[in-house]
Amino acid sequence: MIDAVVPVVVLAVLIAGAIALFGLDALDGPVQAALVLCCMVAALIGMKNGHRWSAVQEAGQRSLASISSAVFILLAVGALIATWSMAGTIPTLVSYGIQVLSPTWYYAATAIICGVVAMSIGSSWTTAGTIGVGLTGIAVVLGVSPAITAGAVISGAYLGDKLSPLSETTVLSAQLVKIDLYEHIKRQAWTSLPAFGIALAVFLVLGLVHVGDRSATADADVDLRALDQIFNIGPLTLLPLVLLVFLSVRRAPASLSIAGSALFAGLLALVLQPDIVRDFAGDRGPVRTQVEAIWRAIATGFSIDSGNADVDQLLSRGGMAGMLLTLWLIIGAVTFGTLLEELGLTAPLIDPLVRSARTTGRLFLAVFATAFGLNIVAGDQYLALVLPGRVFRAEFARRGLAPSNLSRLVSDCGTVTSPLVPWNSCGAFMSAALGVSTLLYLPFCVFCIASPVLSLLYGFTGFKVERVPAGQDEPVS
Question: Where in this chain does the record put each Na+/H+ antiporter NhaC-like C-terminal domain (predicted)?
Answer without folding.
Answer: 156-463
